[in-house]
Amino acid sequence: MRIALLADLHANREAVEACLKTVRKAGCDRIVLLGDIVGYGADPAWTVDTARALVEDGALAVFGNHDQAALRAPREDANSARRHSDAQAAIEWTRGQLDHAQRGFLGSLPAFIEDDDRLYVHANAWAPLDWGYIGNALAAAQSIAATSQRVTFCGHVHEPALYHSQPEGGARHFAPRPGVPVPLIASRRWVALPGSVGQPRDGNPAACCALYDTATDTFTTFRVAYDHLAAARKIIDAGLPQELARRLITGG
Questions:
Q1: Which PANTHER family does this chain map to (predicted)?
Q2: Could you tell me if residue 191 is left (phi over 0), alpha (psi between -120 and 50 degrees) or otherwise beta?
Q3: For residues 152 and 193, what is the distance between their CA atoms, to the nearest angstrom?
Q4: Which of 56, 137, 192, 205 is least surrounded, with the fewest CB atoms within 10 Å of its CB?
Q5: pTM value?
Q6: Can you list the domains of the chain with their CATH numbers?
């Protein structure tokens, strides 16, 4: 089975369409959405409807922190004070863009999914709904220790990365090269991050996605060029913070 991995769509229609086209052309058998379907971008209703249609067609999807925030009334949003002002503005705007059915779909998403030897989760395995980041080898080792699954696929961190267990303990970071399959050696346990579809943050505006091939046990990342200028213009036209548009243009 060839599993397409799309994380952090962030209401970016142009990027989602480009990534779906790429993974379908690569011959994926299943699509997995790793959370944060909404937030930041100008097309939340479209991305939710697209995610719902994919799930109805057999895709898997998990809950992200921006999805959670968009469902909460302002008085119930305990994290609003800690959230960056631009992200908070996007959340408040997004709340007004979703109808009852769209909110219901987001609210129905599970915190994580275990599938064979794989764990799909937005942030991490040790506390899926506390939204801690796997931004270094120490956090990766903590996530590996918290699950019995051999491979954990997650989003939240907006840069592609791989971590694997070490015989002596801990974990080691590996930076995958786009388009180059990386064997996930069976004697190791892995954390695989495909990067963000809708808001990359590594200085490259191209969207991120990945493909995991269960037959060859390989993980391949992709960088997908898309019309990020059009997506940025939509953000400005919607009255959202200009910094969110700049991020799409610069990849940061």
A1: BLL5683 PROTEIN, METALLOPHOSPHOESTERASE
A2: beta
A3: 9
A4: 56
A5: 0.95
A6: 2-250 (3.60.21.10)
